[in-house]
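User: Let's play a game. I give you a shape written as tokens, and you guess the letters that built it. Ready? Here's round one.
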């Protein structure tokens, strides 16, 4: 943490706001965090600890922008059909 704070202090003096922002975005530990329900509450997910992940707020917004409240298989299909190397297929398997 001391190293991180040193870098921020140094960056503060020498660099732009944009550079500081990108540094913070690359270091999740410095970001504002929020709770994500792994199984959405709208689909019956609970507030139990095993259903909650603490995630960076911005990435949380990006996740829901991409996936909304899609099921794991719907997410896998979307990643397979749109985003990844077309020679791969992602499958969701219930544990
Ligand atoms: Zn969420």
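Assistant: Ready! My guess for every position:
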């Amino acid at each position: 943490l001391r190293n991180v704070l040193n870098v921020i202090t140094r960056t503060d003096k020498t660099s732009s706001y944009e550079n500081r922002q990108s540094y913070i975005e690359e270091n999740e530990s410095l970001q504002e965090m929020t709770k994500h329900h792994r199984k959405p509450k709208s689909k019956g997910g609970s507030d139990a600890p095993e259903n909650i992940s603490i995630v960076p707020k911005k990435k949380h917004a990006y996740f829901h922008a991409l996936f909304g409240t899609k099921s794991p298989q719907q997410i896998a299909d979307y990643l397979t059909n749109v985003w990844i190397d077309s020679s791969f297929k992602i499958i969701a398997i219930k544990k």
